[in-house]
TrEMBL record:
UniProt organism field: Pseudomonas rhizophila
Name this polypeptide is given: RidA family protein
Pfam families, alphabetized: Ribonuc_L-PSP
Annotated family: Belongs to the RutC family.
């Protein structure tokens, strides 16, 4: 039997720039769309260093988790796209700072380019917090 899809939206993260939801919940799993480092107010950070862009993308992710009643410890899978593998060490340090001891499954995928010239995009899956 199909369950209801719950759409998640918060003004504390960048609004979708296309025909998609910030996140949706289905059968206890939260699916977070790819988060570029666009600030919650819609301003772009494409001219900022990688470290700043990574922090903004992760802050968007955490704001969406919060809006869905979840937190970083509910993350089960994170996929990160970086424009250039040279950014991997910096991302790993920043990611560890945001997630602390929690270590969800993760993939860091180097890509030749991202939309608008950004250097990072983060998407994730999270569990239902009530099952923690």
């Amino acid at each position: 039997m199909a369950g209801e899809i719950g759409f998640i939206h918060t003004t504390h993260a960048a609004a979708p720039g296309g025909h998609y939801a910030q996140a949706l919940s289905y059968q206890g799993v939260l699916y977070v769309s790819g988060q570029l480092p666009v600030r919650a107010d819609g301003s772009h950070s494409v001219d900022q260093p990688f470290e700043v862009q990574a922090a903004i993308a992760l802050e968007n992710l955490l704001a969406i988790l919060d809006a869905a009643g979840r937190g970083p410890r509910d993350l089960v899978k994170v996929t990160v796209y970086v424009a250039g593998i040279e950014h991997w060490p910096a991302f790993d340090r920043i990611y560890a700072r945001y997630l602390g001891e929690h270590r969800p499954a993760r993939a860091v995928v180097p890509v030749p380019a991202l939309h608008h010239g950004y250097l990072i995009e983060v998407q994730a899956l999270a569990r239902d917090a009530s099952h923690s």
